[in-house]
What does this fold into?
Amino acid sequence: MSESRKQIHLAAHFPGVNNTTVWSDPAAGSHIEFSSFAHFARTAERAKFDFLFLAEGLRLREQGGKIYDLDVVGRPDTFTVLSALAAVTERLGLTGTINSTFNEPYEVARQFASLDHLSDGRAAWNVVTSWDAFTGENFRRGGFLPQEERYSRAKEFLATVNELFDSWRGDEIVADRESGTFLRDAKAGAFVHHGQHFDIEGQFNVPRSPQGRPVIFQAGDSEEGREFAAAGADAIFSRYSTLKEGQAFYTDVKGRLARHGRAHDQLLILPAATFVLGDTDAEAEELAREVRRQQVSGATALKHLEFVWNRDLSAYDPDGPLPDVDPDPGEHTVARGRAQVRMYRDPLATAREWRELAAANKWSIRDLVIQTSSRQAFVGSPATVADTIDAFVQADASDGFILVPHITPGGLDVFADTVVPLLQERGVFRTEYEGTTLRDHLGLTRPSSPAAAA
Amino acid sequence: MSTAPSALPSSEPDPASRSPRALHLAVALDGAGWHPAAWREPVARPRDLLTAGYWTDLVTEAERGLLDFVTIEDALGLQSSHFTEPDGRTDQVRGRLDAVLIAARVAPLTSHIGLLPTVVATHTEPFHISKAIATLDYVSTGRAGLRIQVSARRNEAAHFGRRALPAFRFEDLESPAVQELTLDLFDEAADYVEAVRRLWDSWEDDAEIRDVATGRFVDRDKLHYIDFEGRHFSVKGPSITPRPPQGQPPVGALAHATVTGAPFRLLGRSADLGFVTPHDAAQARTTVAAVRAEQEAAGRAGEPLHLFGDLVVFLDEDPAAAAARRERLDALAGQPYTSDARIFTGTPAQLADLLQELAEAGLTGFRLRPAVAGHDLPAITRDLVPELQRRGVFRQAYEADTLRGLLGLPRPANRYATDGTSTGTGTEAAAPGAAASDATADAVVTA
It folds into this structure.
């Protein structure tokens, strides 16, 4: 066992509302019933994973003015599921994606502080932003936030929530029956925040939780997002799962920490990664091809092309050639409620590139989408996948991975049973939880308790 | 403890649970108990109030007594003995956890009892709460409900900074300005319940089709925009969470007689469960009549609407012991405990007599507020319940797996379904603009 090798962090992303998740497989179960979440969480905990991860979207996605019906649709409420999962697990971290645009700091702070209490210190918050009026139609304030202000609000939201967490030092409750003193300090929880986005004051009503503050994740990739993470996040949920891209991202973000007065190991970089396992590498490759075809049906391929074309392409044959017509360069109107459309910043160039690729390889629309949309990050036998994951982490392409199975809820089982033991044999992944809190698992220091008021 | 399943064949109704005299029983959980000095009792666990274990123990105890449900108090500010503002006191329990999260944490560890967390409509999002309660219904497999409440406290509004509420005192309650404020808050809460209910119905039960042939996961014709437009907010929908197992988790509210009539109006129009506070049988008759009149006015005359009497209870086998305990706690608190609800001090048999008398006046159940959770909750489950069972007015075993089932409420049809695949007798979409709940009420309780 090599003492000097970097320890790998592993997490499990409950299969989400996107076409990575294969619902058509006979093994696919419910995405809503609690039994699916409990199965998934227990597998992750049996495998000694750091945490479970839940994504969120606050409006059903639409394409062409209709609810998008080709992927899994619907999900339960994040806080409620995580709190219930705290009852059926003991050590597993519980990470929830919660939007900083369509929530208020006081409520989110009390929900995360409550979750941290109820899970004995296992709560984490993946802070996401949105600005679109489309999602806003479900909320009191509508589409109130200009796009350019979303990080400004997110930053102030996070700062405000931290002020609320820190408004209790942790030693206020004395509950002395004899003297009748319950609270040491009548001002416990007092806070004042007057800022651009929030103008609030009063007393926070959840005393300090076991982790002090929940672990903070950030998922954005823009320059602003990277700075936001370097300044205040404990971990980044990134999307770079290839070695070179991963290393570039890792170097960039870790390089920003010193400027914020932070240590190199106090921000973890954890890309999302899909996987397909087989008894042999060849078998896994074959399986992976099948999974890709399940993930990208002809109908899904056309819808995916519409993200770039920004036009109704339903008349095209997915098994035929790419459209001759160019993308509509105007404001994107076809697909709503998706982050994906923002990835294609120059649709005309993308279309040109894809036409050339398809022509050169004799690909149909469906072939092209299968080939160009992200394939599985790790494909191979358990030994190959364990090697690859270890190599990535040792080469500083990441500090570990958030694994995204494509089957609910059993898709993680085979990874837990075959890959994890190999990583444990190599001495790069824990065989038992050493601590009780998520901060312990991630090697993060507990935020210092705010100084006692004089 | 008698929790053995009924020996009767399943086709035969359990006489106790089906008898017209059968009572429904719930407990209201709040911190160490409802008396402000409850935390100082030897049996109390004041340092555990923020732990999962504490709440699991309380709800498990309530389930042991075959109770219909528990409610869990909550607020968007620190507890206070003052009606409308913080009190700066350090001699009472201060600090709490989010009630929805407590209910969710306890749900997988219980199997029959209903879970009604308090939800404050005033500063929260109906979209978030609708999916939270729907999800509570999933994690409890059909045992969720919610107790809706409004907040008229200025300090709580300042925690959100989105609206300014006027300062007022308890004595000002009947002033025109405060009446206007409370009517407005109740209007908003009624809209809130309406939006939450529509969101629960925004997915038809069979919307998820997983049709591999066409590649469609859902039949989007069975997903519905709710297009709620109210004075305080609008909500487009559909929910991101499918229709919960019960279809419509029961909605409850505490309501008192007020000059505006708003709280009773809410019960009449929007609630499945009303918590009311008559102090005797005569008041119970008046209260029941007033709420039933509102129900009729709302066009819901034939629909089930439970009216539960709220009572604070000090229970001991010796009535003198109960009275002495109350005196001791009052002495510790420095003043006599007062409440909006009747405070009962006595034996389980005396309480059973009172409950039967009040039931004769038209109440269908009772929500008991244990003065000391660690003492009076077990007294309810281990002494009062067996007494009621002996009298044939309380269930011998759980007769249903869902909260609606325990309350005798049919699973309602989906208001948006057109093809008759969702069956049941309907819960109406209450008209927006109805009034709601009990801002003022809970503040009185803690006064």
In short: The domain at 22-206+239-446 of chain B is CATH 3.20.20.30 (TIM Barrel). Chain B touches chain A through 79 residues (CB under 8 Å).
